[in-house]
Amino acid sequence: MSLNLILQELIVGLSTGAIYALIALGYTMVYGIIELINFAHGDIFMIGTFVSISLLALLGINAESRPTGLTLFGVMLIACVGSMLVCATLGVVIERIAYRPLRNAPRLAPLISAIGVSLILQDVGKLWKGINFVSFPQIFPQITYHLGPPGNGVDITSINILVTIIAVALMVGLQWMVTSTRIGRAMRAVAQDREAAALMGVNVDRIIATTFFIGAGLAGAAGFIYGLQYGSSIFSIGFTLGLFAFTAAVLGGIGNLVGAMLGGVLIGIIEALASLIPDSYSPGSHGIGLPHGGAAWHGAIIFAVLILILVFRPSGLLGQQTPEKV
After folding, report:
1. Distance CA 47, CA 121 (A)
2. pLDDT value at position 294?
3. CA 160 to chain CA centroid, nearest Å
4. Which of 157, 246, 274, 294 has a beta carbon 3.0–4.6 Å from 279's, enabling a disulfide?
């Protein structure tokens, strides 16, 4: 196994990890403010991929029609912002209907409600786009840049660069908003002590709804850039990537924004490096070769990491940031 191959996988892992980080931020924001694991969040991401595909279709974009220049920028902006707004609105509606009435109920009740919403969104995805993979128009030009001497070095594509830039810009913007704006201070106050924040004049319901709005909006952006990188989506993708993103949030420290970003990147790198494990084959019951190892095992490796973190460092790498009730 060459160093160049490892570096190549690290590049892929960084761009994939950036997508996981955007989704993980929604999990960690909601948990940090109301201590709820929003299992429907991954399916909101799935809806974001479908919204992006539909918006591109409405704009007349397909495999044969690829805009350029300012038209390309406008199309991408409309698809990305449109996906963010639809998902953000969906997040607020879910919070208002499925979670707010159960806010003072036993913790199991909102958890079951979240699972129910997840299943509903998956069925909505099936009715909307069917049960097969749906192609995402590859509107952004795929250009490969070679880094290093000829015959050696690594390749990085324009899609990898674009996905990373968009994700990093959104994460930096979120961190600035939470740490430097009035609404960010209100969010941190509600996360620390809801009752005290309400006594100080903070509209707790509005801040919680805003948290869902922002977190779901980031999932919508993740849905758009996921489509750019992988070129397709399916109704079940939210369940799988949602679990990976939740693992990233736990890895970094649930409730910790920087931890979610770090955890997402690390999970992306772990997934990419797992693909370097050589595939082998074992004979099946009818003599059919069944592949195992490598990419077939990346899910098992990621969840093994989750188990190890929960056992040896349950607060995550950067520590859990949740309110401490006395």
Report:
1. 8
2. 55
3. 16
4. 294
C-alpha 43/C-alpha 20 separation (Å) is: 13
- Rounded to whole angstroms, the Cα distance separating 85 from 112 reads 26
290: tokens are 């069944």
E strands, the chain, are 134-135, 144-147, 154-157, 232-233, 280-283, 289-292
Contacts of 183 (CB under 8 A, 6+ apart): 177, 207, 210
DSSP string, 153-204: SEEEEHHHHHHHHHHHHHHHHHHHHHHHSHHHHHHHHHHH-HHHHHHTT--H
Helix or strand holding residue 222 (H, E): helix 204-230
Helix (H) or strand (E) holding 311: helix 298-312
pTM of the model: 0.87
